[in-house]
Amino acid sequence: MKALGRRLAGVLACLAAAGTPWAVAAQSTHVLIVSGLSGDPAFKTRFGSAVSAVRSAAATRWGVSDSSLIVLTEDSTAFNGRSTRENIARAFTALSRRTRPGDVLLVLLVGHGSGEGAGSKVNLPGPDATASEYAAWLAPFGAQQVVFVNAATGSGDFVPVIAGSGRVVMTATRSAVEKNEAEFLQHFARALTTDDADANKDGRLSALEAFRFARAEVAKSYEANNRMLTEHAVLSDSAAAARVSFGARAATSDPRVARLLEERQALESQVAALRARKATMEPAAYEAELERLLLALAEKSAAIKAAGGSK
User: Fold this and answer.
1) Sheet-wide strand order for 104-110
2) pLDDT value at residue 253
3) Which phi and psi angles does 32 have, rounded to 5°?
4) Which of 12, 150, 198, 226 is deepest in the core (most CB within 10 A)?
């Protein structure tokens, strides 16, 4: 077992050298956006702009299908209905029936937050859903790559409640005490809807790139206006965030590179399926198969790079 672990470490080093994250890109992306009560016309406009922009990016930039793109807001006539606790629960159930192992699920909460610990919440029309309820709704997505973003004020207490193995949790603030107007949402939306946050310019935006971009832009904004920083965004797992990407690969007109990219994507899907079966496999068998697939990924990425394709 130790020998397998050492070999895996060597394979991971090869992957890093080839510019390839060891975990996979998503087979498909699914998005749930929940925008709570705004309480003020200015906030309503700001929330609405961010929600519309992210929805548009999901549909046009990431290719998310209509049935996998659910947007709930405080207005009953907008998008897929009101952001009530009951509708949110139904949305999670609907998406759980559509997702496959290795798929990405992005959940974005927008609004005003409050509360502490498991009882933390984002204000909704009607009864509010708590952090513990969101955690329960996420339970069926153990084989998926979940990115849960609470861009509301006072959102920091969501992190320990939602966090889980391989799950990415981001909050606009580090605690429920930071209740001042937060800028994280607008910069995170910009990260998702433009190419500005794609630091390595590989045509895919990782969750880590989006978070780092938004956090840096928040700091720049406060500094430019000579204000003390009153919001501190939090990320639960930077390693997991680096492995999850939104968007398609960069296009290529070279048929050889296109074929290599398709072959690498097939290998990535195999890794995703293997990770979903980990709990049912003997550790030695799992590590041996993972080693084989990761080595194949490293070789494929090296071939793509040699052929002049993107990493």
Assistant:
1) 69-72, 29-35, 104-110, 145-150, 168-171, 234-235
2) 63
3) -125, 120
4) 150
List the beta bridge partners of residue 171.
150, 234
Q: Is residue 70 part of a domain?
A: yes
Q: What share of the chain is helix, strand, coil (3-state, %, to 5)?
A: 50, 15, 35
Predicted pLDDT of residue 7: 57
Residue 291 belongs to domain spanning: 2-23+252-306
75 and 19 in a common domain? no
Same domain, 142 and 228: yes
Tally of domains in the chain: 2
pLDDT of residue 23: 43
Question: Both 7 and 97 in a single domain?
Answer: no
Residues of the chain with pLDDT under 50: 1, 16-26, 250, 311
At residue 65's C-alpha, the angle toward residues 171 and 107, to 5°, is 15
Q: Please report the pLDDT score of residue 46 as a whole number.
A: 94
* pLDDT score at 119: 94
Mean pLDDT, the chain, rounded, equals 86
The predicted structure's pLDDT at residue 209:
94
DSSP string for 165-232: TT-EEEESSSSTT--SPP-HHHHHHHHHHSSTT-TT-SS-EEHHHHHHHHHHHHHHHHHHTT------
Regarding whether 181 and 140 lie in a shared domain, the answer is yes
- Contact between 160 and 150 (Cβ < 8 Å): no
CA angle 160, 162, 167 (to 5 degrees): 105
